[in-house]
Amino acid sequence: MQNNPSHKPVKPLNFWFTVFLALGLGLGLGLLFGQLPQIKNIINPSNNSFDANDEKRDKSIYSKNTNHSQSYAHAVKRARSAVVNVFSEKNIHRSSSFWDLLLGEEEFLLGPQNRHEKSLGSGVIISADGYIVTNSHVIKGADKIYISFEAEDGQENKNKQAEAKLIGADPKTDLALLKIEGKDLPYLPFSESDNLQVGDIALAVGNPFGIGQTVTMGIVSAIKRNNLGILDQEDFIQTDAAINPGNSGGALIDADGNLIGINTAIFSRSGGYQGICFAVPSKLALKITTELKQKGHVERMQLGVSVIDLNEIANPLTAYLLDKGYKEGALIAKLSPDGAANKAGMLVGSLITEINGQKISSAKQVLKIISESQTDQELKIKAVLVDIETGEITQKAYSIQPQKK
């Protein structure tokens, strides 16, 4: 091929590619080396080095699992030896009747029968000389009550059992006090429950379904739960620590192993655990068990009043009070003729708004305050009374000394 003298020679394409590539690499390397000190500081800052050879490294950056800060084994170890299994036995005698014959029941042919029933629960030793708290429903109607202790592996120690004596029971709080013979027994005294806060760690210790001692963990979900319709006197700690059949009467402890409550009930639509469980707070349990130990029963005071919540019924009186801004309180529905309230001049239809400086929000609160009062204690009660004819609202104040039931 001949050269054309009128055209300048053309440089090949790969020449320009090489030039631009070289320029790009040079620029990139320049930027990289210029930023290297900053990059090094980000990857390996001098005040937070992970270099294993750096003797000045901060050990707090390593996992805290090595010091067991997230374990509650120390709390469980303190409590578990004081939590026992409670077994009760009941003999039920059933006689055949004429109705069994008419209905073709098998019992008529078999004649009178004895049925042997057992129930299972848990309990907590609260003194070195063998006093044990459990739930009233665990031992209700029992002919015999037995206590078994747990072995180190959490299983029942069948070689360490004792028959227990019932000292007293209080169905209104679902608590019972038992006694076994012994001394220097491991025990867990009641701790202060008034300082509990929602969100505190809670551990439930007991014997669910009889499978052996079990610990479940949750938090304090609520305090002072009442108006649930479970017991006559309610002041529950609510927790999501799992409580199942067999846990009743067991210990609810805090993260340090302190006894803060006695596991009592669950709220469930299925009959099983649904994350809403209740325990009697230790302050109330201590008061009840102390009285059971001293007297064998619990004495409660009364004023001779029947009260209902303000919004429990709809009638002209409650509608008028609600319209006038009274949203809470306990309405007196009935007075006993010989009761202390009637003698003090209280009237049916009065709305109790305050007792001893406490604002009243419900009828159950009134009954709780009255029942927990002392024999020599006067109750300062404030109430409002509506004149049906004029609509005038009058503030009333009373000083009343409750009576024993």
Write the layout of secondary structure elements.
Layout: H1 13-43, H2 73-80, E1 83-94, H3 98-103, H4 106-110, E2 113-125, E3 131-134, H5 136-139, E4 144-150, E5 156-170, E6 175-179, E7 201-206, E8 214-225, E9 236-239, E10 251-253, E11 259-266, E12 277-281, H6 282-295, E13 301-302, E14 305-309, H7 316-323, E15 330-335, H8 340-343, E16 351-355, E17 358-359, H9 363-371, E18 379-386, E19 393-400, E20 403-404
Antiparallel strand pairs: 1-2, 1-4, 2-3, 3-6, 4-5, 5-6, 7-8, 7-10, 8-9, 9-12, 10-11, 11-12, 13-20, 14-15, 15-16, 16-17, 16-18, 18-19
Short description:
The protein is an alpha+beta fold and 405 residues long.
Describe the structure.
The protein has 405 residues and is α+β, with helices and mostly antiparallel strands. It has 3 domains: 77-179, Trypsin-like serine proteases (Thrombin, subunit H, Beta Barrel); 201-295, Trypsin-like serine proteases (Thrombin, subunit H); 301-404, PDZ domain (Pdz3 Domain, Roll), CATH 2.30.42.10. It has 9 helices and 20 strands. The chain has helices at residues 13-43, 73-80, 98-103, 106-110, 136-139, 282-295, 316-323, 340-343, 363-371, and strands spanning 83-94, 113-125, 131-134, 144-150, 156-170, 175-179, 201-206, 214-225, 236-239, 251-253, 259-266, 277-281, 301-302, 305-309, 330-335, 351-355, 358-359, 379-386, 393-400, 403-404. The protein has a 6-stranded antiparallel barrel with strand order 1-2-3-6-5-4. A 6-stranded antiparallel barrel has the order 7-8-9-12-11-10. Strand 16 (351-355) and strand 17 (358-359) form a beta hairpin. The protein is flat and about 95 Å long.
